Amino acid sequence: MDLLKSLRKLNRIQPDQEYSRKSKLVVLNTQQLDPTPSVFRLLAISSARFTTALGIVAVFILVVVGGFSVNKTGDEIISGLDLRGLRAEAQAIDIQIELTRVVYEEGDETGKTIIVAKKISPSTKEEDGAIMDAEKILEEINESTSTEVTTIDAILEKIAD
Amino acid sequence: MLFSKKLLIRRHRNIGLSTVFFAVAAFLILGLYAHTVAAEVGGCDLKEESAQLDALQKSEADYIEKSRGELQVKKQILTKVIGCGVKETEDLTEKIEEITYNEPNIQRLKQKILRELSSAKNYYQIQGGGISDLDLVGSRNLSKRILEWRQNDYNLLSKKVVGFLALSKNQELMNIAEKRIGQAERLIAAFKLYDNKDLVRLAFESSNYFKLAKENGLKAEQAFSGSFYQPDESIGLIKNSLESLAVVYKNLFDFNATFRGLLPKL
């Protein structure tokens, strides 16, 4: 019971009026630090913020680019299954085989050899659009050198006789 | 009676108009075809000139008149032949210049062939210089001379051009094939398919045929740079190289089909 009474008494404790007034005066008279930061400090803070932002962006770019490069590798692997491309390349090889065969077997006909030369396209770009099949190319070569056409050699032979 | 007569006249007129229309259309189509063929031979189909010469030789005109006409036509033909020859060399030069393959040996060969084509063009121009002064014997001799030159020197040069274009093209196709083989090998590695005997065999065979293609391609290149150029030999080697490349692609197609079959299980 005594303890409870003591605690209630403690609750009623008030500071001395004089002490309270003096303390208040001391606190209010204390010199305050300048609340506005210096230019250098501002610069340092903004620079730190900028570097952090830059770092975050760089990490983001790395993640994005890294992600793309992973995808690129994957695409590259899967592009090995690109049937259309494979067919086009195989077709280009077939055409070349036929053209070289014509010259190998019938190359003594200068006119024919020259027409074959005109059919060989050194760059594959030209063939990207429309690749003709080997048979059609051979057909064209035969048409150009058929008896229907009087070639340079044929007319020279005629005059030389 | 009068009505049926009018109808008959109108019908005849329609038939006439249709005939004219179809004749014009047929003429245009034939003309277009002839133009296409002529364009393909570099605009050098000398059929008309040949027919003109035949007609003159068969004509019943007197000897002097006939000879005069014949000489005139032959001169015209020779002038056209020279023009066509020059055009041919220009076309071949253009083709060779299209080669962008930067391998030093190819570039060196390219320059060599371009010089030879330039000499061939000069030859035509020199031969064409004296056509206006020719008589009948001279026109025959000039024809013979140009023909022999074409059958020997120029034929060899044109084969060289074909061989060189084919060689350059072959190099390009080999580069593409090499990438494809690399892709197939990477697929095996990426999906750890080392135990799949079919895929491994197809990739291995592709690689072996590619090596064969490369060997023949190199031999063809050496044949080109040799002092005694044998066009048939180099063209034959390029053909063999291309045939090996065709086997590479056959294997790649099989590889593709086998891999696609595995995809649902991967």
What does this structure look like?
The complex is a heterodimer of chains A (161) and B (266). By secondary structure, chain A is mostly helical. Helices cover 76% and strands 0% of the residues of chain A. Chain A contains eight helices and no strands. Chain A has helices spanning 2-11, 17-29, 39-78, 83-106, 110-119, 125-129, 134-144, 152-160. Chain B is mostly helical and 266 residues long. Helix content of chain B is 85%, strand content 0%. Chain B contains seven helices and no strands. Chain B has helices at 2-40, 47-58, 63-97, 104-128, 136-190, 197-225, 231-262. In chain B, helix 3 runs antiparallel to helix 4 (104-128), helix 3 (63-97) runs parallel beside helix 5 (136-190) and helix 5 packs antiparallel against helix 6 (197-225). The radius of gyration of chain B is 30 Å and the shape is elongated. Chain B starts with a helix and ends with a helix. The relative contact order of chain B is 0.07. At the A-B interface, helix 4, helix 5, helix 7 and helix 8 of A face helix 1, helix 2, helix 3, helix 5 and helix 7 of B.
Keyphrases for this structure?
heterodimer, A: 161 residues, mainly alpha, 8 helices, rod-shaped, B: 266 residues, 7 helices, 85% helix, elongated
| Assembly state | heterodimer
Q: Please bin the fraction of helical residues of chain B.
A: over 70%
In terms of DSSP E residues, the strand content of chain B is under 5%
Helix content percent band of chain A: over 70%
| Most extensive interface, chain pair and sizes | A-B, 52 and 73 residues
Spans where pLDDT lies below 50 across 5 or more residues of chain A: 65-72, 126-130
Output the radius of gyration of chain B.
30 Å
Could you state the order of secondary-structure elements of chain A as H and E? HHHHHHHH
Structural category of chain A? mainly alpha
Low-confidence stretches of chain B: 26-42
Distance between the termini of chain B: 87 Å
Kindly state the mean pLDDT of chain A as a whole number? 73
Mean pLDDT of chain B: 85
Largest sheet of chain A, in brief, is: none
Radius of gyration of chain A: 47 Å
Order of helices and strands of chain B: HHHHHHH
- Number of helical stretches of at least 4 residues of chain B: 7
Beta-strand segment tally of chain A: 0
Distance between the termini of chain A: 151 Å
